[in-house]
Amino acid sequence: MSSEQWTILSILSITVLMFLWGRWRHDMVALGSLLACVLVGLIDPSEAFSGFGHPAVITVGCVLILSRGLQNAGAVDALTRVVLPANAGRFVSMLALMGLGAFLSGFMNNVGAMALLMPVAIHVAHRLELTAGQVLMPLAFGTILGGMTTLIGTPPNLIVSGFRAEAGLGSFAMFDFTVIGFSVAVIGILFVAAIGWRLVPARKQSGLEGFESGAYITEVRIEEKSKSDGLRLFEIEKLLQDIDVQVIGIVQREVKIIAANSNRRVFAGDILMVEAEVDALADVLSILGLKLEESVKEDDASDALDEDGKEVSEETAKKHADRQQAAIRLNEQDKVSKEQEEKSKGKDDKKDKEDKENKQDEEAEENSKKSKEIELMELAVLPNSPLSGRSASDILLRTRYGINLLAFSREGTRSMKRLRSIAIQSGDLLLMQGPPESIMEFASDNACVPLAQRELRIPDKVKIWQASLIMLFAVAGAAFGLLPAAISFAIGVLASMALRTVPLRQVYEAVDWPVIVLLASLIPVAAVMESTGTANLIACVLVENVAQGNAVVGLALILVVTMFLSDLMNNAATAAVMCPIAISIANTLGVSPDSFLMAVAIGASCAFLTPIGHQNNTLILGPGGFRFGDYWKLGLPLEIIVVAVSLPLLLIVWPL
Question: Which CATH architecture has domain 210-371?
Answer without folding.
Answer: 2-Layer Sandwich (3.30)
